[in-house]
Specification:
HMG box domain-containing protein, 158 residues, 6 helices, two-stranded antiparallel ribbon, mainly alpha, DNA Binding (I), subunit A
């Protein structure tokens, strides 16, 4: 029983023979290495351009000025949990110093917690988020009215 070679087998065997070094009459294997000059000559003979012009990189946009008076976003419930968990975990495992290990343990614990256990952290997070929303609304009002800009200009005029 003879099997017919599939296309993938034929191409694999053809590419394998192309990679194989040539044999000399002595039975030794010899590798033929093409120089880069010969490769360049061959490329120009085939009509390919020597090099394609690379587009110039566009400079990155400068980050917008960070406003020190703008309120920062509050952490999520997970980060409030992380604060408590880190303290407990370090007391129980004083030999573990790696933040990576602490973070992994915290993530596993958070995944296994029920909603009732997480509620206290969600409550803290929603309170902080409400404070942030109020502070942001005040900040936007001040910015629109121009109060912030006037105070900044007066600081630098001195």
């Amino acid at each position: 029983m003879t099997k017919k070679a599939t296309k993938s087998q034929k191409s694999a065997s053809a590419s394998a023979s192309a990679r194989n070094p040539t044999k000399v009459a002595d039975g030794k294997m010899v590798l033929k290495i093409k120089s880069t000059e010969n490769m360049k000559k061959a490329a120009t003979k085939q009509g390919r351009p020597k090099s394609v012009a690379k587009p110039k990189t566009v400079p990155k946009k400068k980050a917008a000025k960070i406003d020190a008076k703008k309120p920062k976003k509050p952490p999520t419930a997970f980060f409030y949990f992380l604060e408590d968990f880190r303290k407990e975990f370090q007391e129980q495992n004083p030999d573990v110093k790696s933040m990576r290990d602490i973070g992994k343990a915290c993530g596993e614990k958070w995944k296994t917690m029920t909603y009732e256990e997480k509620v206290q952290y969600y409550d803290i997070a929603t309170e902080k988020r409400a404070e942030f929303d109020r502070a942001m609304a005040d900040y936007i009002k001040r910015k629109e009215s121009g109060e912030d800009q006037q105070s900044e200009e007066s600081e630098f005029d001195e």
